[in-house]
Amino acid sequence: MSKNYCLGIECTAHTLGIAILSLDETPKFLVNIKDLFTTEKGGLIPNELGKHHKEVAPKLYAQALEQAKISPHEIKFIALSNAPGLAPSLLEGMRFAKHIAKDLNIPIVPVNHCIAHQEIGEITGAKDPVMLYASGANTQIIAYEAGKYRIFGETLDLGVGNFIDTFAREAGLGFPGGPKIQELAKNGKKFIELGYSIKGMDVAFSGMLTKLQNMLNKKQASLEDLSFSLQETAFAMLVEAAERAMAHTGKKELVLGGGVACNSRLQEMCQVMCKERGAKYFCPERQFLVDNAAMIAYLGIKIFLSQERTLENGRSHAGQVPSQESKSPECIIFKPEDFDKLDIKPRERTDQVEVTWK
Ligand code: ATP
Ligand code: FE2
Fold it and tell me: Nearest bound ligand to CA 139?
């Protein structure tokens, strides 16, 4: 049976995602499904996440195969998000991936989750963008420069999504708070000074959070006005950081990534900034903004195909000495007999990843 598909697995945080893409230079997206772990209180207990992923993975996998109408034997390899993230989630995802891959005797390609957010922007037409990656745990401004994906700016304390969710939880809005704050903000009228905090291209939210909590507890402002002011202040900081990175790198494109990028006010502010700079604005659809397995498979396919090309070239230029710096193929594509060498990397940073596919 010919093997024409890649199975993607996303497992870095509270989302367990499964996707199936065709193994092409321009892949077809057959399936992109997920199961999100949430609690009433909104707190994330890492061990509970592991349990959740273990429980839902086999069901999602079966459902994905059924929806794609393919046999598991048509899967050529698995793309797995092994970094960065919460160890218990990553571990369960990896266990599941190894289990299937051993069963089918196929390799695993590990993928960095943050870079996958960036690369999926390509399907919207972005070629060499600065990415504003605004999610729950992460808030970073990333761009490709001199052979690496580099972080130009980031949050010095909380991720913007966690910041919004924490405030929302205290206001009794439940989890996730982002969409609810967005709705309330539409009815806010009065702008309240919350403290704009940006240093270079780095931002910070904890001061603003304390101020918001105090005002909420003392009933000094309506929830609508607080939500409105939160969005206007926090998003202006993100847009300014992104704009500085664009000026610094000379790049003329902005792409959004992460769950907070679903926010229509943030999107609008980014669009205005790009228009004023004469830059192009790109925003993937919601299913590719939030944590998802399709972006993992998408980057996995790029890595896999580029590796195949390198090996082909190697064969036709036999005798050529490989460069000292480049990774050996077994560190990029892990065959079942090498699975003990494949591990999770909970703290891997974007700029530590060797970009082998560009
Ligand atoms: P990562 O692991 O990449 O840090 P994550 O696990 O937090 O991401 P995502 O799915 O990327 O997950 O994003 C979830 C976040 O997005 C939550 O904090 C949620 O409140 C926020 N969010 C979703 N929709 C909106 C919205 N419309 N406005 C603001 N925030 C939103
Ligand atoms: Fe993410």
Answer: 1
Domain 5-117+290-352 in CATH 3.40.1710.10: no
The amino acid at 206: S
Residues forming CATH 3.30.420.40 domain(s) in the chain = 5-117+290-352, 123-284
Q: What is the pLDDT of residues 132-150, one digit of tens each?
A: 999 999 999 999 999 999 9
Instruction: Please answer whether residues 30 and 67 qualify as being in contact, where contact means their C-beta atoms are separated by less than 8 angstroms.
Output: yes
Q: Which atom of ligand 1 is nearest to the CA of 176?
A: 20
Residue 174 burial (C-beta neighbours within 10 Å; 0-12, 13-18, 19+): middle
d(CA 73, CA 192): 58
SS3 state of residue 126: coil
DSSP at 337: G
331 CA to centre of ligand 1 in angstroms = 31
Residue nearest to atom 20 of ligand 1 (CA): 178
Q: How far is the CA of 204 from the centre of ligand 1 (A)?
A: 17
Give the ligand with the smallest distance to the CA of 262.
1
Q: How confident is the model at residue 158 (pLDDT cuts 50, 70, 90)?
A: very high
For ligand 1, the distance from its centroid to the CA atom of residue 145, given in whole angstroms, is: 27
Residue 111 has pLDDT above 80, yes or no: yes
Report CA torsion sign: 297, 293, 162, 262.
Answer: positive
CATH topology of domain 123-284: Nucleotidyltransferase; domain 5 (3.30.420)
